Amino acid sequence: MALVARVRALLLPGSRLRGATLGRAANGGGAGARRALSHRVLVEADPAAGVAVVKFRNPPVNSLSLEMLTELGICLEKLENDKTVRGIVLTADRPGIFSAGLDLTEMCGRNPAHYAEFWKAVQELWLRLYQSNMALGAAINGTCPAGGCLLSLTCDYRILADNPKYTIGLNETQLGIFAPFWFKDTMVNTIGHRATERALQLGLLFTPAEALQVGLVDQVVPEDQVQSTALSVMSQWLAIPDHARQLTKTMMRKATVDQLLKHREADIQNFVSFISRDSIQKVLQVYLQKLRKKNH
Ligand SMILES: CCCCCCCC/C=C\C/C=C/C(=O)SCCNC(=O)CCNC(=O)[C@H](O)C(C)(C)COP(=O)(O)OP(=O)(O)OC[C@H]1O[C@@H](n2cnc3c(N)ncnc32)[C@H](O)[C@@H]1OP(=O)(O)O
């Protein structure tokens, strides 16, 4: 069975976001708040506020593995079909690491069919998030490199915790790879062409103060206020009539989305042939070994 079908089958019986399987939130939720779990994603929905908080819990670093991408996609699909939810806040279940980005083990030592399946899942999650009709906020409560940064850039606004360890950026070139065109476009749409060119070529990871200055995040707040600020900003976005906000969002993002839709298959093939190169495999293996050595 394909991975998406397997995860769907796993999630459907026990983790519906509506109905009896959702209990009241243990804490922090308003009256009627509901909680749903999948393996790697926790959803806390507050129907009265029209908001769901989607929490990543894929230890140790919330990397975007194929399973994580798939579960997150399915959770988002369910929320999009839930009429009580108009806005979603993305955050990490435990502070420290928002997401370490794409899971490097999915891009190392595998076969071309696996690389293609993985990249398709990355594309699908980006398309789902970037075109979402929901208002999306990122409550960035941890470090946020590469694919983690991309996730946050798909949102309508970003709130970052004021901790100098929590850097954010598309640092791919530092690994010896590079951000594909639609990562680049997503960043250009947020901080502009020149700032993106500098950030991407140098593979910059911005501190909170730098990220705020360049416009990569909208607000930097004390660590214990990240989620509450994201929720309070969400209420501003939800004060706008949905149809007007959604039409505007579509208008702003359509050209970028269309570029990927038009070149989707070629983008997969390009990724597979790039990542399969011996030289790139070597570079990724060295990077992974360096990360692992730290701990042994
Ligand atoms: C023609 C062209 C076509 C297109 C071509 C496109 C090519 C480009 C393709 C893809 C773009 C890539 C996007 C990405 O997202 S790549 C990932 C980038 N991420 C990073 O650089 C972050 C790496 N991680 C870290 O810096 C740190 O782990 C940390 C700061 C996030 C957390 O630090 P710490 O708490 O100290 O944890 P550890 O470093 O000790 O890590 C724990 C454990 O986790 C493993 N790990 C970390 N990050 C990843 C990861 N991204 N994927 C997989 N595994 C990861 C790490 O190795 C440790 O493992 P252990 O020792 O075995 O426990």
TrEMBL record:
Pfam families: ECH_1 (PF00378). The keyword 4Fe-4S does not apply. CDD domains: crotonase-like. Keywords: Acetylation, Fatty acid metabolism, Isomerase, Lipid metabolism, Mitochondrion, Transit peptide. It is found in: Mitochondrion matrix. Pathway: Lipid metabolism; fatty acid beta-oxidation. Its EC number is 5.3.3.8. It catalyses: (3Z)-octenoyl-CoA = (2E)-octenoyl-CoA; a (3E)-enoyl-CoA = a 4-saturated (2E)-enoyl-CoA; (3Z)-decenoyl-CoA = (2E)-decenoyl-CoA; (3Z)-dodecenoyl-CoA = (2E)-dodecenoyl-CoA. InterPro entries: ClpP/crotonase-like_dom_sf, Enoyl-CoA_hydra/iso. Signal peptide: none annotated. Its main location: mitochondrion. The keyword Acetylation applies. GO terms for biological process: fatty acid beta-oxidation. GO terms for molecular function: delta(3)-delta(2)-enoyl-CoA isomerase activity. It is an enzyme of class 5 (isomerase). One of its GO terms (cellular component) is mitochondrial matrix. Belongs to the enoyl-CoA hydratase/isomerase family. Key enzyme of fatty acid beta-oxidation. Able to isomerize both 3-cis (3Z) and 3-trans (3E) double bonds into the 2-trans (2E) form in a range of enoyl-CoA species, with a preference for (3Z)-enoyl-CoAs over (3E)-enoyl-CoAs. The catalytic efficiency of this enzyme is not affected by the fatty acyl chain length. Homotrimer. This is Enoyl-CoA delta isomerase 1, mitochondrial. It comes from Orycteropus afer afer.
